[in-house]
Structure formats: C-alpha cells, structure tokens
C-alpha cells in the first residue's frame, strides 16, 4: 500500500522538461540581445502601388525628314585627306565600288566618286573670302598673339590635335571646331610624312577650317578661330563613318627610268644601294629638313640613299612620292625600307 502512494506522488509531481526552458531562453536572447547584422539584413521588397502605374500607350514615331540627307555649305569637295592627295594624279582602279560612301548610305546630299564627295553647286570665291574675313575680324596685335601662344603652345595643353600620316583629314575639321567651342586656339602637333611639306599642311588647315595660323615652330602649329567666331553658327560637317579604301594609282617606280636605258638604270640602283645613307628616318618622326638636305646632297651626288628602317613600306612610298614632287627627283628603287632616288638629267 505504501509503494502505491509513492508511485502516485512521483507521477503527479513530475518536473517540466529541461528542453522547454532552454528553448524559451534562447528565443528570449535572439529577440532582445542579438540584433540583425546590417550587411546581412535582408532587403525588404518594394511594395507595388498599382495606382502609380501609368497605362502604356504606343505611338508611331515618324522620322525627322530634315536629318538625312545632311546638307553642308562648305565650299569644297569632301575627301578623306586633303593634304595627302594630289588632284592631278587620277586613280586607275578602285578596291571597292564607288557606290559605298564612307558617309553612310543616304546620309549626304553629295555623290561619292570613290575618292571624293563632289560639291553640287558653284562656289562664289569672293563671297566665301568675305565671310571668312568677317569671322577673323581685325588682325591680332603682338601682345594678343603672345598671350595666345603662351597659353596653348605647351605640351600639356588640353586643346591639342595630333596630325599623323593621314594629314589633314575630313573628320579633323570637326575636331577643330569642337575645340573652338571653349578655346580661342587649338594646338596641332604634326608627325610623320606630312611634315615633309608643312606649307601644304598649313594651307589646308586654314582653307578647310577658316581659321588663321598664328604660331609655327618646326612641327607645332596654333590655329586661331577668329575674333567674331560663334560656335552656334559653325558650319555643318558630316562625319565619315569609316576610312575608305585607298584607290589604285599608277606605278611609282618604273622598270626603266625615264631618260635612262635598262643597263644604266640597273647601274644607278646598285650605286645607290652601296652608297652610305644621307639621312636615317624614324617612324612617325619629324621630316621638316629632309627636302633641303636632299637638295644639298644632289649638288655633289647623282644618286642618294635614304634609310627608312622601321618606317614601314607604306610610308616609304609616301615619302618617295613627296620627294619626287618637292625636290624634284626620280625614285628608282625602294627595297628593304631603303629609298634610292636619282636627281635626273640636268638641263643647262
């Protein structure tokens, strides 16, 4: 009887399990003492307000008919390069059909002939010159020129355009006008083949942009925009979207030079290859004094060799064409990046 009572008391007074107190204590700690870490806090999803959404309306956008074709009043034919093309030499073939205009299909109101986009109307030269003179205004005095030169002639000038072997290109004219929006002058650094004839570069920069060169030091130029220049009335310059393939021109070096026989031409080439070079040119260098040195050397020598190692064969051909027209002389060979030129027969 006593054993039954003890078993009943144990059964009615059983203590609560320890797991319940532990669980309650852990929940209490997580809710009070441990706050969420900001980097790992979940981002609440934004609530969508259905009333703020506007209904989608489909509208038929009509193209602006005044955008294309682009019309430009610039009084000259558009070419890829103005200073590195000779209008007297006509191509004998094209590497692509002339219908592929670098300005894009239907974007320009001028016809592309394969080398240039022709001007559609006649040009009144006197009117063009008068408009340019009105933009330039009165000539700058000495103090104004010195002030502009001091501001823009340094190498760390932010208003600089690099002129490479392409010379004065069409898109460069647009770059010049973009600089003229916030600067009175732009610094132009010339390198490569165009530096053989800096006078030609200066002429085309002034003629195509309408500005005035106020500073010239070896291969550094400063192009002034003019006193009355207004960026809002700048000319419309359609950009070339890609570089056109150069056409095929007549062969520069003939098998037999003009005025010589085959044996004499062969003997001249061997003499040139075995002679010391009068000058060594570097890639993208400054060739301002090359023409003068060649003329002086021709006073005592009949055949000359110009070392163009690392210049590139394409630049060698351009240099030979420039020397033929500027010296003048007769290129008779370019081999292993060496240019052999003959002064020609002197006419007394």
UniProtKB/TrEMBL annotation:
GO terms for molecular function: RNA binding. Signal peptide: none annotated. SUPFAM superfamilies: YhbY-like. Residues 1-22 are annotated as: Disordered. The keyword Isomerase does not apply. Gene3D superfamilies: YhbY-like (3.30.110.60). Residues 138-236, 258-348 form the CRM domain. InterPro entries: CAF1P_plant, RNA-binding_CRM, YhbY-like_sf. Keywords: mRNA processing, mRNA splicing, Repeat, Ribonucleoprotein, RNA-binding, Transit peptide. GO terms for cellular component: ribonucleoprotein complex. One of its GO terms (biological process) is Group II intron splicing. It holds the Pfam family CRS1_YhbY. This is CRM domain-containing protein.
């Amino acid at each position: 009887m006593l054993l039954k009572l003890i078993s009943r008391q144990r059964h009615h007074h059983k203590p609560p399990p320890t797991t319940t107190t532990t669980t309650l204590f852990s929940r209490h700690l997580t809710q009070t003492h441990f706050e969420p870490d900001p980097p790992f806090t979940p981002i609440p999803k934004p609530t969508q307000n259905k009333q703020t959404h506007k209904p989608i309306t489909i509208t038929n956008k009509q193209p602006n008919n005044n955008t294309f074709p682009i019309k430009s009043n610039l009084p000259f034919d558009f070419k890829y390069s103005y200073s590195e093309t000779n209008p007297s030499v006509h191509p004998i073939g094209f590497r692509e059909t002339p219908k592929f205009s670098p300005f894009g299909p239907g974007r320009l109101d001028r016809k592309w002939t394969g080398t240039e986009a022709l001007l559609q109307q006649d040009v009144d030269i006197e009117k063009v010159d008068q408009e340019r003179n009105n933009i330039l205004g009165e000539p700058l005095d000495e103090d104004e020129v010195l002030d502009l030169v001091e501001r823009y002639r340094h190498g760390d000038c932010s208003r600089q355009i690099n002129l490479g072997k392409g010379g004065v290109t069409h898109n460069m004219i647009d770059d010049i006008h973009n600089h003229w929006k916030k600067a009175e002058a732009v610094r132009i650094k010339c390198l490569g083949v165009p530096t053989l004839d800096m006078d030609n570069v200066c002429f085309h920069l002034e003629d195509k942009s309408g500005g005035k060169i106020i500073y010239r030091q070896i291969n550094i130029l400063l192009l002034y925009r003019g006193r009355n220049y207004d960026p809002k009335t700048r000319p419309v310059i359609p950009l070339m979207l890609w570089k056109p393939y150069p056409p095929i021109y007549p062969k520069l070096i003939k098998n037999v030079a003009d005025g010589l026989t085959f044996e004499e031409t062969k003997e001249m080439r061997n003499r040139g290859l075995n002679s010391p070079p009068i000058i060594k040119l570097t890639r993208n260098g400054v060739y301002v004094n090359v023409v003068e040195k060649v003329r002086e050397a021709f006073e005592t020598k009949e055949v000359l060799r110009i070392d163009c190692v690392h210049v590139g064969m394409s630049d060698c051909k351009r240099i030979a064409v420039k020397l033929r027209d500027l010296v003048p002389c007769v290129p008779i060979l370019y081999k292993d990046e060496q240019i052999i030129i003959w002064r020609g027969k002197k006419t007394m």
